[in-house]
Design brief:
two-stranded antiparallel ribbon; alpha+beta; 32% strand; 3 helices; 38% helix; elongated
Length: 180
C-alpha cells in the first residue's frame, strides 16, 4: 500500500511540474482587458496586471488595483474585441413585431361580407405576426447594427498548485482544479 501511495505522489508531482510550466495562458499579457467573475458578485472588468500563486491582480481604473483570490474566481474572460448587435436587434425586433402584428391582426378581423379577404381571426393574427415580425426584424437589425457589443472568451487559469500544508510535519498539499 505504501508503494502505491509513493507512486501516486510522484505522478502528482510530475503533473504539478507540467502545470507550473504553463504559468499563464499565452494571450494573457499585462494591460489586456479582462472580466473576472466571482461567486455572488458582479463581474469586474479591468486591465490585467499580474498573476500569482494565490491571487490575480486587476486594475479597475487609473491607480485602483484589486487582488482577487484565485479560489474565489468562478470564471475568467479575455476581451476579444467587439461585434455588431445586428443579430440581437433583429431577434428582438422580430419578437416585438410578431407580438404586435398578432394582436393587431386578431383585433382587425371580423368582416363577414363574403369578400375575398374574409379570413378568420387566427388567419389575420398569423398574417399580422408574419408581416409585422419581418418589419420588426429589419428595423431591429438596423438599430442593432449601430451598437457595438463586447466579445468575451472564457480562459483557464493555471490549475495545479503545490503549497505547504501548514502542518508541523512540513507536508505538501497538491491542489488540482478541473473545469468541465
Amino acid at each position: 500500500m505504501r508503494r502505491i501511495l509513493c507512486v501516486t505522489g510522484l505522478m502528482l508531482l510530475s503533473l504539478a511540474h507540467v502545470g507550473a510550466a504553463q504559468d499563464t495562458p499565452v494571450d494573457l499579457v499585462s494591460g489586456r482587458l479582462v472580466r473576472v467573475h466571482k461567486q455572488n458578485a458582479r463581474p469586474m472588468v479591468g486591465r490585467f496586471v499580474s498573476i500569482g500563486s494565490d491571487t490575480v491582480t486587476v486594475a479597475l481604473s487609473e491607480g485602483d488595483t484589486v487582488a482577487v483570490p484565485r479560489e474565489s474566481i468562478t470564471r475568467f474572460d479575455l476581451y476579444m474585441g467587439s461585434k455588431s448587435g445586428a443579430g440581437k436587434g433583429a431577434l428582438t425586433g422580430l419578437a416585438i413585431g410578431a407580438a404586435v402584428g398578432a394582436v393587431l391582426g386578431a383585433v382587425s378581423a371580423g368582416s363577414d361580407d363574403g369578400s375575398w379577404y374574409d379570413y378568420s381571426a387566427s388567419e389575420w393574427a398569423l398574417s399580422g405576426a408574419v408581416g409585422f415580425g419581418l418589419l420588426g426584424a429589419g428595423i431591429g437589425a438596423l438599430v442593432g447594427a449601430g451598437q457595438e457589443l463586447p466579445r468575451w472568451q472564457a480562459t483557464a487559469l493555471p490549475t495545479v498548485t503545490v503549497r505547504p500544508d501548514g502542518s508541523a510535519a512540513g507536508g505538501v498539499a497538491i491542489a488540482v482544479r478541473l473545469d468541465f
